[in-house]
Amino acid sequence: MVLERDYDFWLLDLDGTLVDVEWSYTREIFDHVGNRLGREFTDREAEIIWNGLTGSRDRQLEEWGVDPREFWAAFHEEEDPTVRAEQTFLHEDAEFVADLDVPVGLVTHCQEFLAEPVLDHVGIRDWFDARLCCTEETGWKPDPEPVQSVMNELGVGHNGHRGVLAGDGACDVGAAWNAGLDAVHVERVGHEQRGRCVLGDYRVRSFDELY
C-alpha cells in the first residue's frame, strides 16, 4: 500500500495515466494519417502506437516500414488541440492527485500544443507545481533527463528526497528507475491486450488500489 507520507514528491504521466481519449477520436486520427502516408492502420496498430504497447513507438513504426519522422509530422498536422481536448476524459481514480499535499510534477510525451488545452478542459492544471512536455531537446522517457528536470524545478533534485513516478507505460517505469525513483505502473489496457506484463515497484489497475 502506498501512502502519501511515504514520498516527498510525486511525478505523473498524462495520457493513459490521468486522462484518456475516446476511441472514435483515435480511430479518426489514424484514418487521416493513413491517408497522408498511403497506408492503412488497423485498429490493433492504432492501439499499439497510441498506447505505446510495445515500448518504443518509433521502433515499432520502423518495424512496420513506416518512417517515424513522416508519421509524427502527419500525426501532429492532423491533431486539432481543441477537438483533442473535447474528446479527453479524466480517470476517476486519478482524482487523488488533487489531494496530495507534497510537490507534484507532470512529465509527459504529449506535446505542449495538445497538453495545455487538455489540462484546461479536464480542469487539472492546478494539480501540478511543475510540468514538462518532452521534446528532442529535453529527451524522452525512459531517459532520466526530463524527470530530473522536473525534480529540479520542484526543488527536490539533489536533497535526498524520496519520490515516485506513476505512469501507464514501460517507459515511465524505466524513467523512474533511471532517475532513482520508485515506479507505479497503472495498467489501463490490460495485460492481455498489451501482450506482456510491465514490472514496477507497484502494479495496479486503478490508483484506488494504492490506498
TrEMBL record:
SUPFAM superfamilies: HAD-like. GO terms for molecular function: phosphoglycolate phosphatase activity. InterPro entries: HAD-like_hydrolase_sf (IPR050155), HAD-like_sf (IPR036412), HAD_sf (IPR023214). GO terms for biological process: DNA repair. This is Phosphoglycolate phosphatase.
